[in-house]
Fold:
Amino acid sequence: MTQELAQAMLNGSRRALAQLLTAVENEREGVDQALAALFPHTGRAWVIGITGAPGTGKSTLVNALAKAYRAQDKTVGIIAVDPTSPFTGGAILGDRIRMRDLSGDPGIFIRSMATRGSLGGLARATRDAVRVLDAGGYDIILVETVGAGQNEVAIVRTAHTTVVVEAPGLGDEVQAIKAGILEIADVLVVNKADRPGVTNTVRALRTMLELGHPTARRLISHHGQRLEVPATNGHDAPLWLPPIVQTVASENKGIDELAAAVDQHRRHLEAAESLDSMERQHIEIELEDRLRESLLRRLLERLPADSVQAVIERVQARTLDPQGAVDELIAQAEDGI
Amino acid sequence: MGAIRVLIAKPGLDGHDRGAKVIARALRDAGMEVIYTGLRQTPEMIAEAALQEDVDVVGLSILSGAHMALVPRIREVMNEHGLKDVFLIVGGIIPDEDKAKLSALGVQGIFGPGANTEDIATFIRELMEAQGT
Ligand SMILES: Nc1nc2c(ncn2[C@@H]2O[C@H](COP(=O)(O)OP(=O)(O)OP(=O)(O)O)[C@@H](O)[C@H]2O)c(=O)[nH]1
Ligand SMILES: [Mg+2]
Structure:
């Protein structure tokens, strides 16, 4: 069934594409074979992660950016991730509200996704969903996630270019930018540049960038100014300093500049031959994730149903330590082979 | 098996969506994934979103009284998109004689403005169970 969907999608069925995305999200039986069949058709899309605090204008930006790419005759796949309620398991996925300009265009495909259970699950679902859209022939894939924790790190491992969105008036500028989110940015956007406080936000970002960004720090200390200059980062590749782009997404302002900044980042990666090493790194991380998951699943399959419960009780009773419990479970599983 | 996915849409021109939002939240609280698309959706926009989001159910909120103009057209466009098996439910003030017509056209559920949101969630769950997914 899932195999047939893969074939139908390759033949151009949007319905099949949508159903494959569901199969990926639900880890439906047979999805691995479908993904294997699609894999030779992947690797063509440029994947752009868009992340930032709630309400900074990410969806509005995605809407505007997608229009800009359509004007360049590029097709665009969009994955918009919103959080699942930890209490009910349900979710309201509202990003499409801001993307109504894109409806009716066959060169666009928008899919909303809930974060669901685990971070590992989200990373895998996002990665596989991107791959389905990639095999579906979309030139550009935009992945929107709320930067409210580690979700954004999961997309960085999928994206070629990561755009971090800020907006003025989020209270303490520095507060909003903390938590390592700056370090994942390839391009920084200050959206809502029509609002008071833009200059402060831009200045705060620039300062943070100079202090905190691994690339910038070296540039500043070595050259004293914020320019992209050829320097070494261990393997003689020129360094990239994230540009700061101001936009008013709701009025389509600064969008061409943003698209140009993304394009420049792409050319930078290609020229520096960093793309190869980035892809290798992504593959390495993915294989490690999958290996961990597969081994865990196999191990659990081999254990008698109640053995995990039994060691939990002993750990709780302090008669067994956690690592001892793990060693015991592994030994049990190996006995069962 | 994943969560039940529902598209909540507000077709037509009337300009407030409080009712639609109440339903969206209630279905989320019932553990469903609700794709919310906002105001003034055309039948084409609704069918396209239902297709891309691969939803199990489309829920329409129509308070303008234009249900006989909108709902049959939406069902038609959905069917054209290959979404015959996607359930359609409607919320709004709908006279009995229209209810029968809409049911005959392939609307599975009709709820008045006073409907209990939990009943709507239960109704959807039962539709899904009857379908065997
Ligand atoms: N003034 C102003 N408002 C904007 C701009 N861009 C977006 N908005 C508004 O900001 C609000 C939030 O926009 P969204 O695009 O939904 O923001 P988001 O970051 O996707 O929000 P979440 O997905 O909920 O995290 C909406 O009311 C937009 O209309 C802008 O450039 N200027
Ligand atoms: Mg959004």
User: Anything to note?
Assistant: Chain A has 13 helices and eight strands. The pocket of guanosine-5'-triphosphate (ligand 1) is lined by residues A 54-60, 95, 98, 146, 191-192, 194-195, 248-250 (CB under 6 Å). The interface with chain B takes residues 14-15, 18-19, 21-22, 25-26, 84-85, 88-94, 96-97, 100, 103-104, 109-112, 114, 116 of chain A (CB under 8 Å).
